[in-house]
Amino acid sequence: MSEAEREAPFGDPDGFERLWTPHRMAYVQGENRPSGPAPDDGCPFCRAPGREDAEALVVSRGRTAYAVLNLYPYNSGHLLICPYRHIGDYTLLDGAETAELSSLTRSAITALRRAYGPQGFNVGMNLGEPAGAGIAAHLHQHIVPRWGGDNNFMPVIGRTKVLPELLQQTRATLAESWPQE
Protein backbone atom coordinates (compact mmCIF):
# COMPACT_ATOMS: atom_id res chain seq x y z
CA MET A 1 0.00 0.00 0.00
CA SER A 2 1.34 3.43 -0.91
CA GLU A 3 1.79 6.28 1.54
CA ALA A 4 -1.09 8.17 -0.13
CA GLU A 5 -3.41 5.17 0.27
CA ARG A 6 -2.54 4.86 3.96
CA GLU A 7 -3.29 8.54 4.50
CA ALA A 8 -6.53 8.60 2.48
CA PRO A 9 -9.02 10.68 4.48
CA PHE A 10 -12.04 8.63 3.35
CA GLY A 11 -12.99 5.18 2.10
CA ASP A 12 -10.99 2.04 1.80
CA PRO A 13 -8.22 2.11 -0.81
CA ASP A 14 -9.04 -0.29 -3.62
CA GLY A 15 -6.68 0.69 -6.44
CA PHE A 16 -9.43 2.24 -8.58
CA GLU A 17 -9.20 5.74 -9.98
CA ARG A 18 -12.26 7.92 -9.48
CA LEU A 19 -13.93 10.26 -11.95
CA TRP A 20 -16.24 12.40 -9.86
CA THR A 21 -19.37 13.80 -11.53
CA PRO A 22 -21.05 15.79 -8.75
CA HIS A 23 -23.23 17.68 -11.25
CA ARG A 24 -25.22 14.44 -11.76
CA MET A 25 -26.35 14.46 -8.11
CA ALA A 26 -28.88 17.19 -8.97
CA TYR A 27 -30.58 14.78 -11.36
CA VAL A 28 -30.40 11.86 -8.93
CA GLN A 29 -32.00 13.97 -6.20
CA GLY A 30 -34.75 15.23 -8.51
CA GLU A 31 -33.64 18.85 -8.95
CA ASN A 32 -35.54 20.66 -11.73
CA ARG A 33 -38.31 18.05 -11.68
CA PRO A 34 -41.85 19.34 -11.36
CA SER A 35 -43.65 18.94 -8.06
CA GLY A 36 -46.81 17.78 -9.88
CA PRO A 37 -48.36 17.34 -13.35
CA ALA A 38 -49.59 20.92 -13.94
CA PRO A 39 -47.60 23.54 -15.89
CA ASP A 40 -47.36 25.74 -12.78
CA ASP A 41 -45.90 22.86 -10.74
CA GLY A 42 -42.42 23.85 -11.91
CA CYS A 43 -42.29 22.14 -15.31
CA PRO A 44 -38.83 22.93 -16.78
CA PHE A 45 -40.20 22.57 -20.33
CA CYS A 46 -42.76 25.28 -19.60
CA ARG A 47 -40.18 27.55 -17.90
CA ALA A 48 -37.45 27.30 -20.57
CA PRO A 49 -39.23 29.23 -23.37
CA GLY A 50 -39.65 32.26 -21.07
CA ARG A 51 -35.90 32.56 -20.47
CA GLU A 52 -33.04 33.72 -22.68
CA ASP A 53 -31.86 31.03 -25.11
CA ALA A 54 -28.32 30.75 -23.72
CA GLU A 55 -29.53 30.63 -20.11
CA ALA A 56 -32.20 28.00 -20.84
CA LEU A 57 -29.99 26.04 -23.32
CA VAL A 58 -32.59 26.59 -26.07
CA VAL A 59 -31.04 25.91 -29.46
CA SER A 60 -33.93 26.79 -31.78
CA ARG A 61 -37.51 28.04 -31.47
CA GLY A 62 -40.42 27.30 -33.74
CA ARG A 63 -44.01 28.50 -33.67
CA THR A 64 -45.41 25.55 -31.65
CA ALA A 65 -42.29 23.74 -30.41
CA TYR A 66 -38.62 24.29 -29.60
CA ALA A 67 -35.29 22.45 -29.34
CA VAL A 68 -33.35 22.50 -26.07
CA LEU A 69 -30.28 20.69 -24.76
CA ASN A 70 -30.89 18.00 -22.18
CA LEU A 71 -29.56 19.29 -18.86
CA TYR A 72 -28.53 15.71 -17.97
CA PRO A 73 -27.35 14.37 -21.35
CA TYR A 74 -26.79 10.74 -22.26
CA ASN A 75 -24.22 11.92 -24.84
CA SER A 76 -22.78 15.24 -25.99
CA GLY A 77 -25.35 17.11 -28.06
CA HIS A 78 -28.37 15.31 -26.55
CA LEU A 79 -31.33 17.45 -27.63
CA LEU A 80 -34.98 17.49 -26.65
CA ILE A 81 -37.78 18.68 -28.92
CA CYS A 82 -40.68 20.02 -26.84
CA PRO A 83 -44.04 21.50 -27.74
CA TYR A 84 -44.70 24.79 -25.97
CA ARG A 85 -48.06 23.44 -24.87
CA HIS A 86 -47.95 21.45 -21.62
CA ILE A 87 -49.20 18.09 -22.84
CA GLY A 88 -48.08 14.58 -21.99
CA ASP A 89 -49.79 12.46 -24.65
CA TYR A 90 -48.54 12.35 -28.23
CA THR A 91 -52.03 11.61 -29.55
CA LEU A 92 -53.27 14.96 -28.21
CA LEU A 93 -50.86 17.03 -30.33
CA ASP A 94 -52.57 19.00 -33.07
CA GLY A 95 -51.45 18.86 -36.70
CA ALA A 96 -49.22 21.94 -36.49
CA GLU A 97 -47.46 20.65 -33.35
CA THR A 98 -46.94 17.21 -34.87
CA ALA A 99 -45.49 18.70 -38.06
CA GLU A 100 -43.20 21.08 -36.20
CA LEU A 101 -41.96 18.34 -33.85
CA SER A 102 -40.97 16.40 -36.98
CA SER A 103 -39.41 19.43 -38.67
CA LEU A 104 -37.36 20.37 -35.60
CA THR A 105 -36.20 16.76 -35.29
CA ARG A 106 -34.96 16.83 -38.88
CA SER A 107 -33.20 20.17 -38.29
CA ALA A 108 -31.64 18.89 -35.05
CA ILE A 109 -30.17 15.86 -36.81
CA THR A 110 -28.82 18.11 -39.57
CA ALA A 111 -27.24 20.50 -37.02
CA LEU A 112 -25.71 17.66 -35.02
CA ARG A 113 -24.20 16.16 -38.18
CA ARG A 114 -22.73 19.53 -39.19
CA ALA A 115 -21.36 20.29 -35.74
CA TYR A 116 -20.16 16.91 -34.45
CA GLY A 117 -20.39 14.28 -37.20
CA PRO A 118 -22.16 11.52 -35.27
CA GLN A 119 -22.41 8.14 -36.97
CA GLY A 120 -25.96 7.46 -35.80
CA PHE A 121 -28.83 8.68 -33.62
CA ASN A 122 -31.32 7.43 -31.07
CA VAL A 123 -34.59 9.32 -31.59
CA GLY A 124 -37.64 8.69 -29.47
CA MET A 125 -40.03 9.42 -26.63
CA ASN A 126 -40.76 7.82 -23.30
CA LEU A 127 -44.50 8.27 -22.86
CA GLY A 128 -45.56 7.91 -19.22
CA GLU A 129 -43.55 7.22 -16.09
CA PRO A 130 -43.66 3.42 -16.52
CA ALA A 131 -42.02 3.90 -19.93
CA GLY A 132 -39.16 5.87 -18.38
CA ALA A 133 -40.33 9.46 -18.81
CA GLY A 134 -38.61 11.58 -16.17
CA ILE A 135 -41.09 14.39 -16.82
CA ALA A 136 -44.16 12.56 -18.08
CA ALA A 137 -46.57 15.51 -17.97
CA HIS A 138 -44.77 17.43 -20.74
CA LEU A 139 -44.06 15.54 -23.95
CA HIS A 140 -40.48 15.71 -25.21
CA GLN A 141 -38.60 13.82 -27.89
CA HIS A 142 -34.98 12.81 -27.34
CA ILE A 143 -32.36 13.08 -30.08
CA VAL A 144 -29.15 11.43 -28.91
CA PRO A 145 -26.14 11.49 -31.26
CA ARG A 146 -24.11 8.27 -31.28
CA TRP A 147 -20.59 7.34 -32.33
CA GLY A 148 -19.03 3.92 -32.75
CA GLY A 149 -17.50 2.99 -29.40
CA ASP A 150 -19.33 5.65 -27.38
CA ASN A 151 -20.73 2.87 -25.22
CA ASN A 152 -17.32 1.98 -23.84
CA PHE A 153 -16.21 0.97 -20.38
CA MET A 154 -17.03 4.34 -18.77
CA PRO A 155 -20.84 4.05 -18.90
CA VAL A 156 -20.94 0.26 -18.87
CA ILE A 157 -18.59 -0.37 -15.94
CA GLY A 158 -18.11 3.08 -14.41
CA ARG A 159 -21.72 4.28 -14.92
CA THR A 160 -20.24 7.62 -15.97
CA LYS A 161 -20.39 9.59 -19.23
CA VAL A 162 -17.51 11.77 -20.26
CA LEU A 163 -18.68 14.95 -22.01
CA PRO A 164 -15.96 16.89 -23.81
CA GLU A 165 -17.45 20.38 -23.50
CA LEU A 166 -19.73 22.47 -21.32
CA LEU A 167 -23.43 22.61 -22.21
CA GLN A 168 -23.25 26.34 -23.01
CA GLN A 169 -20.58 25.64 -25.66
CA THR A 170 -22.64 22.77 -27.11
CA ARG A 171 -25.70 25.06 -27.30
CA ALA A 172 -23.73 27.79 -29.09
CA THR A 173 -22.21 25.31 -31.56
CA LEU A 174 -25.57 23.73 -32.40
CA ALA A 175 -27.31 27.10 -32.71
CA GLU A 176 -24.62 28.15 -35.24
CA SER A 177 -25.07 24.86 -37.12
CA TRP A 178 -28.88 24.95 -37.13
CA PRO A 179 -30.29 24.95 -40.68
CA GLN A 180 -31.92 28.19 -41.81
CA GLU A 181 -35.26 27.25 -43.35
Automatic annotation (TrEMBL):
Q: Does the keyword Nucleotide-binding apply?
A: yes
Record flagged with keyword Translocase: no
What sequence ranges are listed for the domain HIT? 44-153
**Motif Histidine triad motif, residue range(s) on this chain:** 138-142
Q: Which UniProt keywords apply?
A: Nucleotide-binding
What's the protein name? HIT domain-containing protein
